Amino acid sequence: MATTTGQSEAQAQFQFTKQPYVEDVGPRKIQSIKFSMMSGPEIMKASEVQVCNASFYDPNRKPKRNALLDSRMGPANKTIICETCHGELKDCPGHYGYLHLCLPVFNVGYFNAILNILKCICKSCARILLSKKERISYLKKMRNPKPEALQKTATAKAILKSCKPKTCSRCGYVNAVVKKAGTVMGIIHDRSKKFTDDTDKECKAALSGTKDSGTRIQILNPVRVLGLFKRILDQDCELLYLSVRPEKLIITDILVPPIAVRPSSFVDGGRSNEDDITSKLNTIIQTNASLRQDLDGKKSTSQCLGDWELLQVEVAQYINSEVRGVPLSMMQPSKPLRGFVQRLKGKQGRFRGNLCGKRVEYTARTVISPDPNLKITEVGIPILIAQTLTYPELVSQHNIEKLRKCVLNGAQKYPGAKSIKSADGSMMFQLNRNQKNLAYGLKFGDIVERHLEDGDVVLFNRQPSLHRMSIMCHRGEVLGITRFGIQKMKESVLIVDMIEGVSGCIIMGIPTQLGTGILKVRQRVEHIPQLDYGKEPIMSCG
After folding, report:
1. pLDDT tens for each residue of 294-316
2. Which residues form a coiled coil (predicted)?
3. Helix (H) or strand (E) holding 387
4. Which residues contact 374 (CB under 8 A, 6 or more apart)?
5. For residues 214 and 44, what is the distance between their CA atoms, to the nearest angstrom?
6. Which of 63, 87, 319, 437 is the most exposed place for a label (fewest CB within 10 A)?
7. What pTM was computed for the model?
8. Which domains does the chain have, with CATH numbers?
């Protein structure tokens, strides 16, 4: 009976899980992380529901099935339970859906890559336009593990330059210039020797679908490009420096993000305002349905091409709402919606707005002035900064007397200290009272947060170039000034221009030793547009 109960409990534990049971063998080391595009079958496999309904709610204000707010992709509000993981709004991480396009479209993010691939392959047999000798030579370079990524990128550029318009040596097809057409994301294969007015008219007629392009101007639409990319050999993908199959550059299915990524905002009266992503996906569903009706109803070629181009524009704006070349007839009169590119890039984007630190500890900021008495490796530190910023020094038999004097001076007198941390890390003592008892009670292994002193290593950097390559190491020299002092010869290194003896803001950080031996800069800097000469510096101590 006990065995049966244990088996039933084990079955109930894994009844609602999609992933198979994996035994926990402890921590593992990650060797590498690979980023790649997802193909249509991969998107469908990772999704929970196919989205094809343009409506949001039914008459009872419940999310419709197979719609953008389907509860299988996560709860849309606090009153709904996720049908996939049975979690509430605060617990469900969200689940993906997919939207199948009746005709494929180009990916706006990889449009230039698509053009370069088409320039390198035959437009008939999809083989790369290189001779046998060139293929062997370039393939040997690409398969060599010693060259770095930049060298292989240079080799890929050389291959692109070698694949000039020529007759294919395998099928005899005459390949010509491949270039972007006048539409948003159109590609043409111009086989005419000279671009005349008649060629221009023929190109426009072919793009509009009112006339057959014949043999001189060929339209490389996404359907034809997808067929060519599927026929490219894996060996040719190595020559093109592609880590994935090129057909993944063509969008056949759109991955619909979970509702948690695009939450709805509710206003008075029970109405809801949908996110920009949800609104754009709803437009794509409507355009895709209209195109499917055109194809099923056997509408005119021009009407089908018009809806296909509109679908291409909508999908491109879904990824990047600032895509160029959109015709005025397709421009939205209202405020443009924010695409995924706009959500990621810029100062307010996901990376700079959330992931990158902007307020850091153990730094100070003020203006700089030249000081000919300093060495090139030194930087003058105001005494106010030296009293505020501290350095954690470990008590040993060589420095216990020096640190005892710092503790006796306290936090207000230089050179002093601000706090003491016990050797086991269990207690922290602030030096605002009982300094004498704490000074004579120092033990080996204690850590004293002392003031900066002459010879301390500091990291110096000019605002706003806060990247790692511009941070320089200096030896501090504590002076009775209100600004940083640098040697006159360091102006060109810091890219500063002294105006009336004073330059812009400089940030200084304190490197702190970690247990692993890595130097870590802990900084916090408040944003101030400009500091004038003679004003007190800005400091922050964690």
Report:
1. 888 877 778 888 888 889 989 99
2. none
3. helix 383-388
4. 380, 477, 485, 486, 487
5. 38
6. 437
7. 0.64
8. 40-103+255-341 (4.10.860.120), 109-241 (no CATH), 359-385+454-542 (2.40.40.20), 390-451 (3.30.1490.180)
